[in-house]
Request: fold
Amino acid sequence: MTIEQTSLRAGRPRARGTAARVRATALGLLGLVAVAVIWEVYKVFGPDDGVVVAGHRILPRTTDLAMPHVWEMVARLLGPTTSQAGAAPLWLTVAQAALVSLGIAAVGWVVGTVVGIALGVLMQMVRVAEHGLLPWVVLSQTVPLIAFAPVLKNWGAQIEVGDWRWPQWLSVAVIASYLAFFPVAVGMLKGLQSPPRTHLELMHTYDAGRWATLVKVRLPAAVPYLLPALRLGVASAVVGTVVAEVSTGFMDGIGRQLVSFAGQASGDPAKAWAPIFGAVVLGLVAAGLVGLIGLALRSYRRGEAT
Amino acid sequence: MSKHETTAPAVRATGIGKTFDTKAGPVQALTDVDLEVAAGEFVSLIGPSGCGKSTLMRLVADLDGPTTGRLEVFGKSPAQARQDQDYGIAFQQAGLLPWRTVADNIGLPLELHRMDRSARAARVAELAELVGLTDFAGSYPDQLSGGMQQRVAIARSLAEQPRLLLMDEPFGALDEMTRERMQTELSRIVAETGAAVVFVTHSIPEAVFLSDRVVVMSPRPGRITTLISTGIGPGVVRDEQLRETTGFFEKVTEVREALHGAPVGSSAREGR
Reply:
């Protein structure tokens, strides 16, 4: 094989990658437009009282109160938050709340990721730990910690170290991290166990110890398993943050805003949708940031099928 | 073998037996194996599946321990020889780390043994040249053909300048043309390094072409049945002409007959 052929082979997937990305973006936007169109079409042709089958409403009412027009929702975002003079535009209020939630979710995700990776490594290195810990890791997710959020908040409120007091947002971050660590721990363990026997035996013939094998073979091999786990983890962290904000009564985030704006929906139906869009954008931004990690680690993903 | 008298043999196996405990009961993979591989000698292990040829190589590499018998590698225990990096190894799968470039794959054992960066780079460049991959040092394994990947694996196995090379069907997954080219290359490389080789293979012409001696093995239980000297000798240049000589054909026939239970002239060979 000549060098030209090889570089050609190396170059082609990159070109295909760009085309695929443009295509994916276009399809994504098309999907967004489709949702808006379906929304409006149903609003025009659906009965005012929704579709009721045998006493159960299976499709919502189409009144302006239940389903505001798409353009009304967008227009409302650009309008002022309240009728008070000098009120900030609604999109800014929502964006500020989303940013607070993003920060809390990020802290939760980082803590969850560190704990998850540490647990994965521990379970791989110590076989007893795998048998002893893995059932608990799985079991931990069946405990609805969000339900205990108020209790957790009270525990936190009692913590004081010198002048430092446990801030309320930290309770929210802890709950987010509790949801985020699980996919990371499981994915990490699976990834660390993924190297083929040949690689491990080769390391044995080099008289490499467990740490050297971990660093040179197991950790790089775990990257393709870790990245999807990180994406799952960040989604869990965002959901955990929003829900925990509501149940701990944390006022500054998007979670509380969802509840309070929904309460104003009878007078201002389009306003209730603003924090929902905010939450969606928050999730997308969080997932996008984690996607950047995948980009940075792309040379460790060469084994992946493309 | 007289010229190697001063050094310990690369491999000395005495009465080696290996039994695997499986769910279906114990399986005797090897029984009563006696074999000596001199320093610098090229020995092929050949035989049908289940004859224990790979098992024997794995015992030498200290990837497994013998159940009975005594095994020495350069006069030491296999574990000590492994710790001293006395051998290099290559498998049927090249076993390259996909996230490392060719150069970084070749340099992996040196990196693990903490050779400093500049000395490592020099050694890697030397090895890449030896296997003809200088232009591909920055490529990743998925950009290489199977034969090129196997060359990287061979270069890697030579990194620590071992006195013994262990190769488990390294060309088993290659097409016939590439395979013959790789055989020629390997014999050149081995001649340059002067290392002894234990070479596991399924292919009769491959064993005859490369080896000073061919060890014919038989299954159930795995054992050595015949030792055949190819008579080609370590000094002989192994090229395409060699494949077409009468002597080569005769040795191929001899090994084939030994493998298939020796239909003709068996009494003559049993004397060896």
